[in-house]
Design goal:
About 45% of the residues lie in helices and about 10% in strands. It is α/β, with parallel strands linked by helices. The protein has a 4-stranded parallel beta sheet, with helices on both faces. The radius of gyration is 14 Å and the shape is globular.
Length: about 160
């Protein structure tokens, strides 16, 4: 299966998935891979809001810009628009699969760290409840996951 469009999914789309999106955009471009990347949340509480300010700061310190990000909620149409939907944790994976209209759609949803070969951990911890160190750790984990994403997409899209 060729993968040209990837959707990264977390709960509110203000921490993990926009971070992974920013890292992936930068690393995929550097690798010369023509893969579109976006993010969303399974919940709609933060729709149209920017990323969490703590995540913006941690990302900026590592060279990633989240300033233009605006959160949005997962839509049924996302299964038609994206080849691969990667959830940050098992709760969000369940939410993805629940929204899938077919078994084929459900099979295109997976855990981000597991699919990219970056696990353990299998689940990407949500830094929202923690301190600045948790947000910095999230950046490192996103970079590790995206490195695996780039390698796997390079192999998949040959």
């Amino acid at each position: 299966m060729s993968v040209r469009r990837v959707l990264l999914v977390c709960l509110g789309n203000i921490c993990r998935s926009p971070l992974a999106e920013a890292v992936a955009r930068k690393r995929l471009a550097e690798a010369g891979l023509d893969v579109a990347v976006a993010s969303c949340g399974t919940g709609g509480w933060h729709a149209s809001e920017g990323a969490d300010t703590r995540m913006i700061a941690a990302a900026r310190a590592a060279g990633y810009d989240l300033s233009i990000h605006r959160a949005r909620q997962l839509r049924e149409r996302d299964f038609a628009d994206y080849d691969l939907l990667l959830a940050m944790d098992s709760d969000n994976l369940r939410g993805l699969r629940k929204l899938a209209a077919t078994q084929e759609e459900a099979e295109r949803a997976a855990l981000f760290l597991e699919w990219t070969g970056a696990a353990p951990p299998v689940e990407f911890p949500d830094p929202w409840y923690g301190d600045a160190a948790g947000f910095s750790a999230a950046v490192k984990l996103a970079e590790r996951g995206v490195a695996g994403l780039v390698e796997r997409l390079r192999d998949t899209n040959r």
